[in-house]
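Researcher: We're teaching a course module on how sequence relates to structure. For the next exercise, students receive a sequence and then see the predicted structure as tokens, so they can try to spot secondary structure elements on their own. Here is the exercise chain.
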Amino acid sequence: MEQNVLFYKIALSMVPGIGGVLARNLVAYTGSAENVFSEPDKALIKIPGIGKVNAKRLKNSAVFERAEKELEFIRKYNIDVRFYTDKCYPRRLKACPDAPVILYSKGNVNADEERVVSIVGTRNATDYGKMICEQLISKFAERNYPILIVSGLAYGIDIQAHKMALKYGVPTAGVVGHGLDVIYPSLHAETARKMMGNGGLITDFPSGTKIDPSNFVRRNRVIAGLADATIVVESAEKGGALITAEIASSYNRDVFAFPGRVDETYSRGCNRIIRLNGASLIQDIDDLEFFMGWETQQKVQTVQPSLFVELTADEKKVVELLQREGELFIDQISSELRMPGSKVSALLLNMEFKSLLVVLPGKMYKLK
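Model: And here is the predicted structure for the students to work with:
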């Protein structure tokens, strides 16, 4: 990525009052992050949601100074940067309406792995919760399919998930609520260092970000958005894990929870969301594979579509798009082809009947 282009992408993400929605509006109207800053005030004011106050903020020199400082940090510590318009931006996260416009990562994280699962839970993990984490992740290792384990590097279930992934050689990514210049909690710095060899760290916060409780709530949307499924291992009746599960559900992602004893404080949250149909009950990896359709994908041989199937003009567009991009969510297909969602839905269903497509968890499509 050219440094001047990267500079403006970072700068846009740092403008006070300009969140993800407004940043996307600005880029959509002007064509690029760089163009946003060269656009005349009169034109900026007319963009929905901007107005005079935000137009003035876009011209503040302090934003450029901070972006330059961040660029130096990125160069020095070999940080990867992914802007939401970049092809390397995680495709699952890109489909989320409130996804951050920029992500920073360190290590060798493949956020577009074939299967991505977020494992979350209480910071007060019991021996029961730790055992569940180990059993589940050891089974992932036995299955030997491409998978990434995502969690939040926090105390309890989070750090247990990362440690077990390292123990069994499963790639793992920690989503943190601060910049990559620090590790919080510091007690987990050694685990984070080991993760760099088979995963790494991800954040949407720049270096120098103050450690604040609200940041960890905000980072939960990234944990949920990166994954096909979110699994709650243990939780009290209230907690960050349940917030993550709720966010995942709002993204139409699968949510699962392990049940526990009714008299256990840190099983009450799991039992409650299962009871309220906020999560599907699972007891082991077999249950997860059944709900996600992974078992079927492993056992059923792909049927080669006929070479002589006649395609409509719209079907050809879908085929060409998926040949180029690999896998896409239905809303991404709709956006790329500039077709109404209802039309795309009917089109994809018809292509399924013709054995042209495979439907993956989360309504993601790829060619057979």
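Model: If you want an answer key for the exercise: Confidence is low (pLDDT under 50) at residues 300-308. The first helix runs from residue 3 to 14.
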